[in-house]
Amino acid sequence: MQVHEAREDIPEGFVHSGPAPQDTVLNLRLALVQSDPAGLEKALMDVSTPSSALYGQHLSKEEVEKFVAPSPDSVAAVQAWLADNGIDAKTISPAGDWLSFAIPVSKANELLDTDFAVFTHEETGKTSIRTLAYSIPADLKGHVDLVHPTITFPNPFARLPAMVTPPKIKPAINITSDAVPASCSSTITPACLQALYGIPTTPATQKSNQLAVSGFIEQFANQADLRTFLTQFRPDLPASTTFTLQTLDGGQNPQNPSEAGVEANLDIQYTVGVASEVPTVFISVGNDFNDGALEGFLDIINFLLGENAPPQVLTTSYGQNENTISRNLAANLCNAYAQLGARGTSILFASGDGGVAGSQSSRCTTFLPTFPSGCPFMTSVGATQSIPETSASFSSGGFSNFFAQPSYQSSAVSTYLTALGNTNSGRFNRSGRAFPDVAALGDDVEIVVGGQEGLVAGTSCSSPIFASVVSLLNDQLIAAGKSPLGFLNPFLYTTGASALNDITTGSNPGCNTNGFPARTGWDPVTGLGTPNFEKLRTAVGL
């Protein structure tokens, strides 16, 4: 047996509470080593880089699976090992690279030469069964990528937007005005976004163009609240405009007003209510296998990879600190985003709401990057506030400790680091993948929850807003006989950069520092900036 993955210490906030009960059943997942991740990355960049001859020629399901499917030798070796231990595993991903099986702790300890223990998160009292290291047979090196959940810890603070007080003023808003309504200085509505970013109000026309919103941790999107929201803030759209529902892992979407989720309602209201008549799907991921959101993160991507026509845009407003996750799992999830991106899906995630402290408090001494924002194959969205826009102080941003800086952003990031000088020296990884990539308004955003209007704040407002802009661009591209945008970053850091509103004021404090300052060009608070729809239309060739 050879140690396969280990972590040096228990993540901050957790304590060891003793050995795990031997008869507790663990739902384990095993990832096999994929056949050609480097080939997949090259294919992704070829179809996503505007200067490439293959730009926009997205891959088919079968083409992607060829890069991902483990070798027959790996499949045989792993299945033989499991069978020798009396374990019958089932395949849970389209390419056959993920297996799942359930065994008691006693058997897991024996199989992986480890000691699973109970860890308690002191602040919330939530417990998890984890280990700090595990082993696999030496002859399975090169065949097994990882076993999960083992050394990856859950996120006890599932990131949800902060509710602020209900708005006091309700001035009438002129939807067609080009000038930003005065009320937008205190309350952000779809009309504010249309005026500020030039987002069109004309209905989308392409029914094949789909915008997907992910839902986790029993956050449910309420149809009645959406109708109220549209009646109040998009009276030009039919009040009956709604979303379709997909579920996995026992997900559901009950419609009792008391079960309406702040996050789910926000995400749905600022996709359906901004991406005018783009077909929107809410994907509710249940807790059947869930100990935190990471299993759901994996399952939703495998679910979409299994579809013959996955959505062109996926927005997610959840995440956690990078240091809670095993490097192998982070890399595997990141690779799953590359697979979906190669097929033409733009994947956007909120960057987080703790400034340079991720989702931590001021206890940190080095900056905490968030996951999956550190993954180079997705688009991370930070937040702005106020009009004129300035950086939102909570906007998470920084540099990954797991992922190297991708070539598409090296020029923009090196310009920033040169200007930054020695500020925050030693607190972050200068050679890491830098995030966020872009930003949108994320403070004083008005939503309806349980029939009541209120304001929310967080990068979880910004991601669905930016996703809506991308979906409306896709609608026009598809109508013109062109490909959807797919993986956005190589475009954003080249021809797209000048089509964004550069945010140059503010910072994102945390860890008892002022964090990073926003500057001209890219910065780790608001990325390259916020959308300008007309300029983006030109940049994408419309």
TrEMBL record:
<keyword id="KW-0720">Serine protease</keyword>
<dbReference type="GO" id="GO:0004252">
    <property type="term" value="F:serine-type endopeptidase activity"/>
</dbReference>
<comment type="function">
    <text>Secreted tripeptidyl-peptidase which degrades proteins at acidic pHs and is involved in virulence.</text>
</comment>
<feature type="binding site">
    <location>
        <position position="503"/>
    </location>
    <ligand>
        <name>Ca(2+)</name>
    </ligand>
</feature>
<feature type="active site" description="Charge relay system">
    <location>
        <position position="460"/>
    </location>
</feature>
<feature type="domain" description="Peptidase S53">
    <location>
        <begin position="187"/>
        <end position="542"/>
    </location>
</feature>
<feature type="active site" description="Charge relay system">
    <location>
        <position position="267"/>
    </location>
</feature>
<keyword id="KW-0325">Glycoprotein</keyword>
<dbReference type="InterPro" id="IPR030400">
    <property type="entry name" value="Sedolisin_dom"/>
</dbReference>
<keyword id="KW-0479">Metal-binding</keyword>
<dbReference type="GO" id="GO:0008240">
    <property type="term" value="F:tripeptidyl-peptidase activity"/>
</dbReference>
<keyword id="KW-0865">Zymogen</keyword>
<dbReference type="InterPro" id="IPR050819">
    <property type="entry name" value="Tripeptidyl-peptidase_I"/>
</dbReference>
<dbReference type="GO" id="GO:0005576">
    <property type="term" value="C:extracellular region"/>
</dbReference>
<feature type="binding site">
    <location>
        <position position="521"/>
    </location>
    <ligand>
        <name>Ca(2+)</name>
    </ligand>
</feature>
<keyword id="KW-0645">Protease</keyword>
<keyword id="KW-0964">Secreted</keyword>
<keyword id="KW-0843">Virulence</keyword>
<protein>
    <recommendedName>
        <fullName>tripeptidyl-peptidase II</fullName>
        <ecNumber>3.4.14.10</ecNumber>
    </recommendedName>
</protein>
<feature type="binding site">
    <location>
        <position position="523"/>
    </location>
    <ligand>
        <name>Ca(2+)</name>
    </ligand>
</feature>
<dbReference type="InterPro" id="IPR015366">
    <property type="entry name" value="S53_propep"/>
</dbReference>
<dbReference type="InterPro" id="IPR036852">
    <property type="entry name" value="Peptidase_S8/S53_dom_sf"/>
</dbReference>
<keyword id="KW-0106">Calcium</keyword>
<feature type="binding site">
    <location>
        <position position="502"/>
    </location>
    <ligand>
        <name>Ca(2+)</name>
    </ligand>
</feature>
<keyword id="KW-0378">Hydrolase</keyword>
<keyword id="KW-0732">Signal</keyword>
<feature type="active site" description="Charge relay system">
    <location>
        <position position="263"/>
    </location>
</feature>
<dbReference type="GO" id="GO:0046872">
    <property type="term" value="F:metal ion binding"/>
</dbReference>
<dbReference type="GO" id="GO:0006508">
    <property type="term" value="P:proteolysis"/>
</dbReference>
<dbReference type="Pfam" id="PF09286">
    <property type="entry name" value="Pro-kuma_activ"/>
</dbReference>
